[in-house]
Amino acid sequence: MPQASLMTWLSKPSTVSVPPPALVRPQRHEALPTPPSLTREVAKRPEDRTDRDIVVLPPQKAPARSCPPNVTLRAPTKADLPAFKQMNSLLLPIPYPESFYKETISDDLTRNITLLAFWHDRPPGGVSPSDHALEKGRLVGAIRCRLFAHPLSSSPLPPSTAEKPMLYLSTLVVLSPYRGHGIAAHLLDTLLLRAVEDYGIGSVGAHVWEANTEGLDWYRKRDFREVGREKGYYRKLNPDGAVVVRREVGVMDLAGREK
């Protein structure tokens, strides 16, 4: 399965509308950090860091941009955390600390770049208000991101990209029975557009396990390209390397393109 990661968190802005804070180089961490040559991000408390962040994506062909009418996307709430934790524990091989989930709803920036996908037995638009209150849907997918001050790259970048923040995919998961409906792509596209509008990002990136050919293919179909490799990034996997993938934001991302 596709997997992605970086080792530190963003310092917390007071609101989601503030620009990215000043940069500092992250300290090397025993839990396999990303080398400073590939990226810099705003430092975060060591106790809030995780070993790695993971992206789990469906192996099917690239779906259409629109989701079924049964699917709704929204920001997480405190009531969603138990289901969010359970889904991650089922799909991700590494447990996340309690701080990971608390920050998802307590930090304005993090909450703004996190989305949950819910599946409804009946399309929300086709039920009465009273029925809709009872049929809240089941959590079937989620995306949680970070905002980095600079894009992932081991090579020179155009100034238009290098000077802008990057949206980094921390976790992207979809329950297997609900894959193939375009939910993962819809989560990514929706959050990408929001990050462009709210933070002026110039790119989106992730780390992918080098043996995960299906995951790498998923990214390539969405115009991501390989920009680096990191040996020993996933120390508990064999092979243990990660492929760094990135995509620049373009006009078509703003217009909303069909894949």
Automatic annotation (TrEMBL):
<keyword id="KW-0012">Acyltransferase</keyword>
<feature type="region of interest" description="Disordered">
    <location>
        <begin position="26"/>
        <end position="49"/>
    </location>
</feature>
<dbReference type="InterPro" id="IPR051556">
    <property type="entry name" value="N-term/lysine_N-AcTrnsfr"/>
</dbReference>
<dbReference type="InterPro" id="IPR016181">
    <property type="entry name" value="Acyl_CoA_acyltransferase"/>
</dbReference>
<feature type="domain" description="N-acetyltransferase">
    <location>
        <begin position="71"/>
        <end position="250"/>
    </location>
</feature>
<protein>
    <recommendedName>
        <fullName>N-acetyltransferase domain-containing protein</fullName>
    </recommendedName>
</protein>
<dbReference type="InterPro" id="IPR000182">
    <property type="entry name" value="GNAT_dom"/>
</dbReference>
<keyword id="KW-0808">Transferase</keyword>
<dbReference type="GO" id="GO:0031415">
    <property type="term" value="C:NatA complex"/>
</dbReference>
<dbReference type="GO" id="GO:0016747">
    <property type="term" value="F:acyltransferase activity, transferring groups other than amino-acyl groups"/>
</dbReference>
<dbReference type="GO" id="GO:0007064">
    <property type="term" value="P:mitotic sister chromatid cohesion"/>
</dbReference>
<dbReference type="Pfam" id="PF00583">
    <property type="entry name" value="Acetyltransf_1"/>
</dbReference>
